[in-house]
Amino acid sequence: MLVKKADFVISAVKPEQYPDDALPEIALAGRSNVGKSSLINCLLCRKNLARTSSKPGKTQTINFYRINDAFYFADVPGYGFARVPKSVKKTWGKMMETYLIGRKPLKAVIQMVDLRHPPSKDDQTMYDFLKYHQIPVWVVATKADKVPRGKWQKHLKIVKETLDMEKEDPILLFSAQTAYGKEQLWHLIVQQVAN
Ligand code: GTP
Ligand code: MG
């Protein structure tokens, strides 16, 4: 995929602020610090278009990026970050729920998990939520560079089993460090936004 143009459009906290030009949209969801913003940067070959941080909780709003004037990436705030007051967690949860359930142009959610660890309770809840609302979901197991190649399949199996994934849902290995899996993911995205 040739990215000719990638623009940050808006940081939104409520639907009135979402882009309203009806272009198809792909959202990134996953635990705080799992690597959502890094994946966006890696796909777009931009160093820091989506702000990343080693401190969890960097992305606190829904950030929209318009790609080639053809579709959007929506970088959604990470969940499961313990050091956040309950009231803030509630606001985030509500904001994500409103977005995921109500967003018409949403074509798929890339649910990111860390290949190194079994998915958390929050990851399971997110997957179940997406399935319940019949939102197409692709699981991307990232930070593959941190797991020896010989163990990839074993770790992938644990991800699939822990999430109790449906057979037809795609699962991909990824690394923002090495760009492993980038072409395969682009392939899915291009297909889905053309639909
Ligand atoms: P929030 O915005 O807090 O929800 O986090 P995020 O999911 O956007 O994570 P972010 O992209 O900011 O990455 C968090 C940390 O993980 C950063 O230090 C990244 O450099 C690192 N990281 C992300 N992806 C990878 C990867 O594939 N491999 C390795 N080794 N590190 C990664
Ligand atoms: Mg982020």
Automatic annotation (TrEMBL):
The gene is engB. GO terms for biological process: division septum assembly. InterPro entries: G_ENGB_dom, GTP-bd, GTP-bd_ribosome_bio_YsxC, P-loop_NTPase. Keywords: Cell cycle, Cell division, GTP-binding, Magnesium, Metal-binding, Nucleotide-binding, Septation. Its cofactor is Mg(2+). One of its GO terms (molecular function) is GTP binding. Belongs to the TRAFAC class TrmE-Era-EngA-EngB-Septin-like GTPase superfamily. EngB GTPase family. GO terms for cellular component: cytosol. It comes from the Bacteria. PANTHER family: ENGB-TYPE G DOMAIN-CONTAINING PROTEIN, MSS1/TRME-RELATED GTP-BINDING PROTEIN. The keyword Isomerase does not apply. Necessary for normal cell division and for the maintenance of normal septation. The lineage of its organism: Bacteria, Bacillati, Bacillota, Bacilli, Bacillales. Residues 22-195 form the EngB-type G domain. This is Probable GTP-binding protein EngB. It holds the Pfam family MMR_HSR1. NCBIfam families: GTPase_YsxC.
